[in-house]
Amino acid sequence: LPLLVGVTGGIGSGKSTVCAMLAGMGCELFEADQIAKELQLEDPQVIRGIEELFGREVYSRDGSGKLQIDRKAIASVVFADPEKLIALNRLIHPKVREAFVREVKRCAREGKRILCKEAAILFEAGADRDLDRIIVVAANDGLRLNRAVKRGLDREEARKRMQAQWPQERLIERAHYVIFNDGTLEELRLQVEQVYRSLLTVAE
Ligand code: ATP
User: What's the gap in Å between 2 CA and the centre of ligand 1?
Assistant: First the structure.
């Protein structure tokens, strides 16, 4: 089996950047949040479940007939109604997990040694139990907010999401590796290289 590595961190911390660097160094990548989004547009069971929870009107078709989902509408419902969030997660998480298991098997077949799973929510969902090593990416709150805004998120929205996430100290307590992304991308790369070298020795 490949070494299974979780990469997590708060909004704007730099998880995706770290994962892109790890992929460039030779790790396989499983982007859990991306897979979850795809399932909401492609998996008939998930689509039906979402329609039941949030109403059929959250789905529409674009000009070319492609299915679209109103993520903002869903976000505002689940923000106000934690029960709906739990139901939504119960619908999607098992499917993401299935996709991950398939990916683990593919890596095993193809002799890939390290599989990195990027997820904004890892501990909350208990998904860390399946992983051999956890990398937490951290940065100070101001920097994270600015990065999220630079990426197109509204500042208030970014602040709200940050407040809804686990505080970084709580993530760091549970990490095998902590990458502090408070500096330049070059400084980040040096840290990622160090972690990668360590992962290689663990994967031996
Ligand atoms: P989210 O949880 O919002 O998806 P994330 O943790 O995956 O975010 P990234 O997408 O990797 O974070 O980074 C957010 C933005 O900040 C990106 O535009 C990225 O290029 C930029 N960024 C990340 N780290 C640095 C850095 N050290 N220096 C400059 N820009 C950075």
Answer: 27
Confidence of residue 93 (pLDDT cuts 50, 70, 90): very high
Strands (E), the chain: 3-9, 28-31, 59-61, 67-69, 114-118, 133-138, 177-180
Residues tagged in the binding site annotation: 12-17
Write out pLDDT tens, residues 102-156: 999 999 999 999 999 999 988 877 888 889 999 999 999 999 999 999 989 899 9
In ligand 1, the atom with minimum distance to the C-alpha of 20 is 11
* Residue at token pair 């602040």: 159
Amino acid at 25: M
pLDDT at 127: 83
Q: Where are the domains of the chain?
A: 3-203
- Nearest-CA residue for ligand 1 atom 18 is 151
Q: Evaluate whether 96 touches 32 at the Cβ level (below 8 Å).
A: yes
Backbone angles phi, psi at 194, to 5 degrees: -60, -45
ipTM: 0.96
Ligand 1: which atom is nearest the Cα of residue 151?
A: 18
Q: What is the CATH number of domain 3-203?
A: 3.40.50.300
